[in-house]
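#data-curation
PF: Archiving a pair of folding outputs for the training set. Convention for this channel: one message per protein, sequence first, structure tokens after, nothing in between. First:
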Amino acid sequence: MALEHVGYVDLPPHAKPGGFDHAAVHGGRGLLYVAHTANDAVDVIDCTTNTYLRSIPHLTRVAGALVDEAHDLVFTSNRGENTVGIFSPSREETVAKVKVGIGPNGLAYGADHRLLLAANVGDPSRQGSFTVSLVDVSTRAVIANIPVPGRTRWTVFDAESGRFYVNVADPPQIVVVDSADPTRVVDAFPMPAVGPHGLGFDSTTRRLFCACDGKTLLVVDARSGAVRSAHAISGVPDVVFFSPAFRHLYVAIGEPGVIDVFDTETMRLLESVPTERGAHTIGFDAVRNTVYAFLPDTHRAGVYRDQPGSRRTA
């Protein structure tokens, strides 16, 4: 067994349809921030006690949260108002908002250049609305809106190369933006599976983990874009997290409601952990090796702890 279920965290009831979306953890502070889309808020969980603390309101249709511990910042993508939010965990009541493209969703941050990338899902009825926005966090200003060929999904940043990787659903590909020249797409990797969605990154092996709507997990060389292997998963995926400590990959799948756990050294599926139907999003605390699955029907988080030695014995 890789993940052990250790409890639940009750969260505020949904005020309207929408459930939860992307989450991020500030490991040093022991705080998890999860987009509670149904409540136009970000819920805050204490990871040391696994308790709900409070909610940060007025984030319309918030779709994602991202943490940068080096600069002690939290970012949110507020899809309903086409903004990104920027605040410090020590001043959560003061959220700076920056207008970006249509429907910001995925977020990635390049700390060296203080660049935030917002991957915008766009509007199919509006020509040219599929974009990524680059925000200078120091000046709270958009410095570029870059066209991409289709609806974006999640995005990650590689600090070593200075490159952002962004999943595009259709045509299925991963596009690349360089933080040293953040005005254009510098490369694009075609993906041989329908609907690239969740995206993870292993900085040690320089591999991207691209979970696709075609119920396929692709392992991709981040330098060349070559697809190294493909693996079946239990359903249509959403959020992906990689554990450097255990070399595990966690793939959230809303239907039937499981987390697929892979050993990334062998790419063997270790187990599929039941969560709850519709639970398409997770958070990961790398300090405490804990996975949080956000359960929309019961408006709570399931808490799962990864186990030392589980990679060898599962």
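PF: Second:
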Amino acid sequence: MMLRVILNSREETLRLGMTLGERAVDGTVIALVGDLGAGKTTLTQGIAQGLGVTHPVTSPTFTLVQEYEGRLPLFHCDPYRLERAEDLLSFGFDEYFERRGVVVVEWADKVSDMLPEDLLAVTLSLAPSETIDSDNHPRNCEIEAYGVASMSLLLAVKEAFA
């Protein structure tokens, strides 16, 4: 099952993320895909808000994984700078899926072979637009569930955005 939405602003991207974070359960894995500037980090910031994280969330491009405390811990991973996906294993990347919490992976397409089967895949792309304001540039968003737990989350998000 897939849900397609158009996010017309940064605020709508944050709202989608908050909806995901509010409805996420222990073990939720969210795989984000999209070009630079597509809104992956903004969506993650919304997820963090929905989880009750109070610290600022930034892209962990140089640290690979950032951990945040909230209703559930948030593990935010960004393998953008890695030359090989296997390099993540030396950081214990696979162990995050066994810990209690929510795992969000930006640039998930770079490490897709290392992700669990049950995940929510979110693809963001800039929609054609006349605006040059990056905060308010519309984004196409496709959300697809792979597995029982992620299907439940997708249905909850669909209901919230209906």
